[in-house]
Design a protein that fits this description.
single chain, about 475 residues, 2 domains, 5-stranded mixed beta sheet, 3-stranded antiparallel beta sheet, 19 helices, 10 strands, about 10% strand
């Protein structure tokens, strides 16, 4: 087994490494402040949305919950299930059943983190408006339901309201001492890391050398993921492997006769939770689950009918693509007639279908390039001519780009509106090739595929649409 001397030297090494990372991280926070104030907001819009935009201490402390519950960014590609967050703290506490002086403070710390996390989270209700992400929305919803009619919604909503009330003093404290950068958060995280490391070492002192090495490595790796990756889950896939081990290992150990009844109950409950989660994950995989959407009933997000038809062989690949994106097939054929012209991309998945997309397509999802161009050329025609002179011929636009904007200042939304209204709209050098956005003319009762409304004709959008493809003439 690893000796106390080994862990003493490991403590010294870790503190040295963490002090170095502290200085780098504080410098990075200074840079982050400059980024926000100078208007170059693309990194903040894209990277920080995985982490959240609450006050800096809460931003880090709520990350385990946010990653598990998809609080900030939602979608099947980042869903890791609930088992790790639910079971690992329980297994950790099992070692302190006879040592409440350590177990109780750890439990109170977990409850505090839980309060901070759900106070910055949301509720997915069973009744409209479905997505409740503010205290006002939750309070209004609670007044409209009863414990008898919707018991789960009622209890969950009250838990959230209580957490938000308890969190308010903490939030006021965080606002006073923190912001987009500070000199408080990283020292706090390092102190918590050192205390946590001591508790972990104490918890595993009776285990084998191999188990100690795995646990210590996973703990250190997890900490660096926490402070350096902005909550992006694929940078921490190794943690998922170790977390699986931490769930399976306690369950695989034989129950000893000396174990108390509460330990047996916990382990059998954990096995049940594990099997339920596996069942849910299998269903999750087969249901073509769609991410949470504002104003859409939860049951309508379980299946994607178009993709289900394709999997069953009812429709072809081309038919499936055109059901998602009407008219896209002909436009892609036109773009692929030659492979020398360039393509300007704002979102969309269409580069996957474009020849030589690695060299032809310019990615500008956060419109940082366009913002720089617009600062130099304010006229829409001049911008189009500058793009054409640079060999750009097509523009791909995701009409829902602004929906990923989680920044409090809505900087991406402002840039997207400027892109569409100050550049694309009424530009004689830009021609629409395809879109799935539908607009109704109430005077003729005709529906046309177009992006912009004619206010003089009182046109109305039938559907928000998802894409538009333009050609620079």
């Amino acid at each position: 087994m690893l000796s106390n001397k080994y862990f003493s030297w490991l403590y010294i090494l870790l503190i040295g490494i963490l002090c170095c990372s502290l200085s780098i991280s504080i410098y990075a926070q200074d840079e982050n402040k400059q980024t926000v104030t100078q208007g170059n907001t693309s990194v903040r819009e894209e990277i920080q949305r995985y982490m959240g935009y609450e006050e800096l201490p809460a931003r880090y402390l709520s990350l385990p919950y946010d990653v598990t519950m998809n609080t900030n960014v939602r979608g099947p590609f980042i869903d890791i299930g609930f088992c790790f967050l639910l079971l690992i703290p329980i297994f950790y506490l099992m070692g302190y059943l006879k040592r409440p002086k350590v177990g109780i403070p750890f439990m109170l710390f977990c409850v505090s983190i839980f309060i901070i996390s759900i106070a910055n989270s949301f509720i997915l209700s069973t009744e409209p408006p479905y997505l409740l992400d503010t205290k006002e929305k939750i309070a209004t919803y609670v007044n409209e339901i009863s414990l008898i009619d919707a018991p789960i919604d009622f209890i969950t909503a009250h838990v959230h309201l209580t957490a938000r009330t308890l969190y308010q003093p903490l939030n006021n404290l965080f606002k006073t001492i923190s912001g987009n950068y500070d000199y408080f958060t990283y020292p706090m995280l390092i102190i918590l890391f050192v205390i946590g490391f001591w508790l972990v070492v104490d918890r595993i002192k009776s285990h084998t050398k191999e188990v100690k090495a795995i646990v210590v490595f996973a703990y250190i790796f997890g900490f660096f993921w926490l402070i350096l990756t902005s909550g992006i889950i694929w940078y921490g896939y190794l943690i998922l492997v170790f977390s699986t081990l931490f769930v399976v290992y306690p369950l695989s150990k034989q129950l000893e006769p000396s174990n108390t009844k509460i330990v047996k109950v916990i382990k059998y409950s954990a096995w049940s939770i594990l099997f339920i989660s596996i069942f849910l994950l299998l269903n999750f995989k087969s249901m073509n689950y769609q991410p949470v959407q504002e104003g859409v009933a939860p049951e309508k997000m379980l299946f994607d009918p178009v993709l289900t038809q394709y999997r069953l062989g009812v429709v072809t690949k081309e038919q499936t693509l055109n059901q998602y994106y009407p008219g896209i097939d002909d436009v892609l054929d036109k773009i692929n007639e030659e492979d020398q012209s360039l393509v300007y991309r704002v979102g969309t998945i269409f580069p996957f279908f474009i020849r030589k997309n690695d060299s032809r397509v310019l990615l500008d999802n956060q419109l940082g390039v366009f913002n720089t161009i617009q600062n130099q050329l304010s006229d829409r025609v001049q911008i189009a001519e500058a793009l054409k002179a640079s060999n750009f011929k097509y523009i791909l636009v995701d009409l829902n780009t602004y929906l990923i904007d989680k920044t409090p200042e809505k900087t991406l939304t402002k840039k997207f509106l400027a892109f569409m209204n100050d550049f694309i709209a009424r530009n004689p050098k830009i021609e629409l090739l395809a879109t799935d956005r539908q607009v109704l003319n109430p005077q003729t009762n005709e529906v046309a595929r177009k992006v912009f409304l004619n206010t003089q004709l009182n046109e109305q959008a039938v559907g928000r649409g998802t894409f538009a493809i333009y050609e620079i003439k």
